[in-house]
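On clarity, I found the account of how folds are encoded harder to follow than it need be. For illustration, here is how one protein appears when written out as sequence plus structure tokens:

:::
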Amino acid sequence: MKKIVKFVFETAYGPFVAWCCTALLLFAAYAISPPLGRFGTAMVNMMFVVQVLAAIAWLIALFISLNEREWLRALGQFFLGIAGLFLFGFGLVFAFVAHDVVAYATSSGYAEVKSASVTNDASALEFAVEYRPAHPFLAEYDKTIVFKSGKRIGVWIDTGGAGPFAVYRLPTGEYYLVDGLEHDFIRSDYRVNVTNEMVEMMCDETWVNIPEGALKVDSRANDSITAKTADGEKRADGGAPVGDSLKGRSYLGLLYPSGRFEPGEGDPFADIIEPQWNPIKLAGGEVPFSLECRRLKGSRHYRLVFASGARIALGSDSCTGDEGYSLYALEDGGYHLFNAGQKDISWRKEWRINATDESVEVMFKDHWNKYGDLWVKIPSGATSVDGGIRIRGGENGNPLSVSINVNTEGGKVTGHEFTPVGETLENEMLIGTFLPPDDDPRSKGRKRERK
């Protein structure tokens, strides 16, 4: 044993050999894991830990060499370590290929399917949720809604662990499911109709029907989803606005992966499902409008509120703008608002506000110097802005066409008005900064038991 330890920690190539051997065992375990079910998953988990320990051992060996001033040994350990990383990358590719080949040959899937029956009381719920491990050592699960008839509709993958669904009943008789309560930034919402046996997924402010025969939802956008089926990929676009469809819901309880349904009372997740808009204080002067913020699905959403009460959504950030939003006064009487924390001006979000006619323009950044930076007007009444601005033409004599899509209470609206940024931001003067609130629901000490 002492010889092995000395070989690993006190030779130039010892850490490299240890790293390669443990990586080989990890790749082999991953490749043969499909037919082994839970044992294969446990084996991969164990070898992954061993691989991490091998990496730590390499760092310790390098530290020992430097401490003992064995410069040549340290140099050898360093370059062999880099070589080991490249070999690990190539080995990983082959391991993935071998894993898929073995999975296909054995026809047993990734691992043993773990199904979640709803409860022993058939009258409690009228559907089940089935969990299938999608990865041998990461907390990723493919989930499927299963109806009493046996019809199955796959939904979004759970990448945050096998957490429970919060189950609600809507006034229309449908079920409303909220997944990802442990981590609101990966939350997924569904509306389940047990009469028609269909499942809709919430995409921004739209209910989009998941296609028939969906094995799982691969991607989602503002008002569309792409699902994997046995016949290939299928896409669904548009649907009914979410609007007030969640009003009047009644909380039923939590449905756990084990199959147990735990009834509940009240609405313990109301502040996550429908967070309130909160005004943001301006640290500086006074202006004839205010800024509101709410945290939803891991992002802060912002909207302007004018003196008349009119509201226009600005968009969202990923909760990284803790420095706030700086507000400047322009020479023409307008205002310039942008994310103060984004130092790279080519990527930060910026808006121009006209408080007189209560309008807002968002800046399109021309990264390729083809069109020039543009102010694009956000249509009035916007409740959400998907951030996508489309530019066409503008060359070879073709007219320039600009469009931006927003959601309003009446549905989707497309705006086309734009003006060049030009010199509109010259000689602006700082007014103050809107500082975002500490609105992370997980910081409130809410305790949720994982069962």
